[in-house]
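__Record contents__

***
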Amino acid sequence: MAYKGMGQIDKKELWTIPNLITYFRILCIPAYIVLMAFAGVKSQPTLLYIAFAVFVVAAASDLVDGWIARRFNMTSGIGMVLDPLADKLMHVSVLFCLSLCTGLTKLGADTAAYSDGWYVHYAFVILLLLKEGIMVCAAPLVMKKGAKVQANWMGKVASVTVSAGVIMSFFHPFVYYADWGVLAWGVCLSYGAAINYLADIIRQIKKINAGEMQSATSDNVRYTDSGNNVIAGAEPEEECKVAYSAEAAEDAADGADGTHGGEEE
């Protein structure tokens, strides 16, 4: 059953394999935060590189869950929300730690003295926090309105670029600011992607309100893009074309009684 007001989320999809991998990725975040905190406090670069290994495993799991979701048609509404959220949390948290755990501790002074001890300058953290904060706050409204957030090419390139910059930043004393250049480019791309996402979401909401487009549900989000077009190779099963769920039938009955098509006022 889908959650009221957020038709893209179905409780039955919470425990699919791609979503379980996403949960694992989120659980990796506090692990490398603790490791990096101790690396800074105790001035132990070894702990920093262990944290790096945890981050790499978490980042690699993102590729795995995406492949499984596409290969076995396990795309879900909850995955559509949690997967990018996990990526955002990973990027912001690791950059935050690389900034504070180096620039404000003896670790930075010992290993990156030429850049005043900052592996990652705090300006990058502030810029990404601002952008991601806007996107995270907008997510509940987007889902309630029935819009779909589909990855676009700029968003994918931005995510890969920021990830590359993060990985390089762990080795900041050895790459001579190349990591900062990659991060700067990634931040610019991420802002461009955010503008594209918001413009697409606004377009969808206008079409939904005008009755020109169907709201996203936990069923149709699997096989349609943000323009409500069927994705090649992901056509719905025959029964989904007739009715999505018992709840949809109940909502239709409510509409016949004079309520607003199952949408809460």
